[in-house]
Design goal:
heterodimer, A: about 140 residues, mainly alpha, two-stranded antiparallel sheet, 5 helices, about 75% helix, B: about 260 residues, alpha+beta, 2 domains, ten-stranded mixed beta sheet, about 35% helix, elongated
């Protein structure tokens, strides 16, 4: 496995594997789940996992294809924001499962998922703004001792 | 036999174990491949970045910097020297935090007379632009000082370690004795070139003070602008001796905040 092979072969394979697994789990699990609320929540959950892993594959690809660049501190800030956004669909999902008569909670889940997808896509499409060139770094001598 | 195998395979394929195994296998393949790819990508990044740094001193643009002499001015040293542009590099403080280089003037050291202070030939020294004499409260302090006589093609600055700040009218013997009682000075006495306290004081009064008066006194009186002084030490690399020197504070450019060994 070389960096070139990662970019041209491995990343597409991982994308394909991810979607295949997601489709497989979705279709197979839907066969045995009778509860419509659970079916809806499972769909959302599977798509959520796909978002997260797609981002991880994207980050691997960018990291691999740009070895001479580092990322600035703002990348960590964006990741921290995602860290706080991610629990929201889980919380809303649990609330919908607890109160299934409140369909509004499910409808709320859809734009929340859209928001999460926007965050990941925006991060991916703007990551070039967070590149930092590698510079030689010098540590000071101990002086005046 | 064959119908038995066929029915076994058929019930396996139609059962719930098969899809679970497929899903689990897919997830393991995904996870293992991702892990290996990430490891290779990280290793490659490290190698590429180290190569960039290794080649940087050859390919980085150069800039001219003033020379700060750590030794005698009567050497081959010039006014300026060409070295790598510091804006293309990161210079960190002792905590590892990158400095804002726009706040500093950079000088390149010529000579080894400051080696006991940790500053060597060709080191880059950073001196804050907003230096104020009032900030000199504790000693010793490494200072960049302007030469009083500015000769063409010769260094304009020198670097010295100052131990005392006061007036030329102070009791210089007492000042020298107070310097020699400092713990950091005690380390200097272990180095090559230290000739003893008596020699230091005698040299200060009979040579350095005489030189000072010759340069800055008029009609037996010190001119006002040169009365405030600092006393420094330096290691004469030719005579191999450590001695005091006296400098008017008006010629002080700033204190050396950091020094870096830079190959360029």
């Amino acid at each position: 496995m070389t960096p070139e092979a990662i970019h041209t072969k491995v990343v597409p394979s991982l994308q394909a594997a991810l979607w295949t697994i997601a489709l497989f789990i979705g279709t197979v699990s839907f066969q045995s789940i009778g509860d419509p609320v659970l079916v809806k929540l499972m769909s959302v959950f599977i798509i959520f996992l796909v978002f997260v892993w797609e981002s991880a594959i994207m980050f691997l690809d960018i990291k691999n294809a740009n070895p001479g660049k580092n990322f600035d501190g703002e990348v960590l800030g964006i990741n921290s924001r995602l860290f706080f956004i991610i629990p929201i669909p889980f919380i809303v999902g649990v609330l919908y499962y607890t109160y299934p008569e409140l369909n509004i909670l499910f409808y709320l889940l859809l734009p929340i998922m859209g928001w999460i997808k926007w965050e990941y896509s925006s991060f991916a499409n703007n990551i070039h703004l967070h590149f930092v060139d590698i510079k030689p770094t010098f540590i000071p001598n101990k002086i005046n001792d | 036999m064959i119908p038995f195998i066929t029915s076994g395979v058929s019930s396996f394929l139609n059962g719930s174990v098969f899809p679970v195994l497929l899903a689990a296998g897919g997830i393991i393949y995904f996870g293992w491949t991702y892990y290996r790819a990430n490891k290779i990508a990280n290793r490659n990044r490290k190698e590429v970045q180290q190569d960039i740094i290794n080649r940087a001193t050859i390919v980085l643009p150069k800039k001219d910097y003033y020379v700060a002499c750590a030794g005698s001015k009567d050497t081959e040293a010039c006014t300026k020297v060409s070295a790598i542009d510091i804006q293309q590099c990161n210079f960190c403080d002792s905590n590892g935090k990158p400095l804002d280089l726009s706040l500093y003037n950079c000088y390149v050291v010529y000579g080894d007379s400051m080696k006991y202070a940790g500053i060597n030939d060709n080191d880059f020294i950073l001196v804050p632009k907003d230096f104020n004499l009032d900030s000199l409260k504790s000693f010793p302090e490494i200072l960049v000082i302007r030469y009083r006589e500015q000769n063409e093609n010769k260094p304009l600055f020198k670097v010295r370690r100052a131990w005392y700040s006061g007036s030329i009218e102070d009791d210089l013997v007492k000042a020298a004795q107070s310097i020699m009682e400092m713990p950091k000075f005690n380390r200097l006495t272990q180095q090559e070139g230290y000739k003893g306290a008596e020699w230091m004081i005698r040299d200060l009064l009979e040579k350095r003070l005489v030189d000072f008066k010759h340069k800055y006194f008029k009609g037996g009186e010190c001119q006002d602008q040169y009365k405030d002084i600092v006393i420094s030490t330096t290691f004469d690399t030719v005579k191999k001796e450590i001695h005091f020197s006296i400098h008017p504070t008006i010629l002080i450019v700033g204190n050396v905040e950091e020094s870096y060994n830079v190959k360029s």
